Amino acid sequence: MTEECKLTIVGRFLKPRPQIERIRSNFRELFPIKGDAKIGVYDNYNIFIDFTNEDDFKSVWHRRVIEIKGLQIWLQKWSPDFKLDEDIPIVPVWVLFPGIPFNMHTWHYVKQIASNVGTPLALDAATYGKTRPSMAKVRVEIDLTKPIPSSVWVGSEDENSPLKGYTQKIEYENIPKYCKHCRKIGHNMMNCRVLEKIRTIEVNEGETNAENMIPLQTEEGSSKNQKENSAGNGGQKKNMAKQNATKVDKGVAK
């Protein structure tokens, strides 16, 4: 069933979308595609773009963000998990391998290394044509909810192997932020407005509860206070008795 939508892109406007006919005409001007592309409205913010040609699909989806009539559209590949209020965390990103040996500037080797990051999609033109010996560059489909490695070991892990390996550094271009709480692309949990509101409410509730708390005495403390009060009362009675006795003695002496 999902095969029927494998070339479908969901475009999400950040503001209310223009009329559908304006979107369709502007899309054809921006992308001279080989096959056909059907654009349909999902709601006031989301559109579906269904391609018949895989190269057309890749050329648009790899852009990640496009602009139509001055409005930005975030692009994401359709998934059975698509939800109106969530962004799919699977995005295409350019991955760079600086200093990779020049003999490894081929799809065969780069694909194997890039598989440690995500799903390799395609080499860039300079890597494919071997016109930039300093690094290899490949577009990779990554999952923003998973850890993103900064290096990977290349070669055999067997110490006795004649082929020695090395640590390959990995760099990335423009990884979008993703909030695991909101499940939205564009910000992370550090600057999530929803989480900030929750934190503010929790702090206010904590302060209110602290103000309303009444200190409770333990049984030991209560008994101690009772003994001290009892001892104090006993001392007062003894002092009064002494004073009365003194008065009586003085009266007798007279």
UniProtKB/TrEMBL annotation:
Matches recorded under InterPro entries: At4g02000-like (IPR040256), DUF4283 (IPR025558)
Short name of any one Pfam family annotated for the protein: DUF4283
Domain (DUF4283) ranges: 2-86
Source domain of life: Eukaryota
Chain residue ranges for the region called Disordered: 209-254
Protein name as it appears in the record: DUF4283 domain-containing protein
Native source species: Nicotiana tabacum
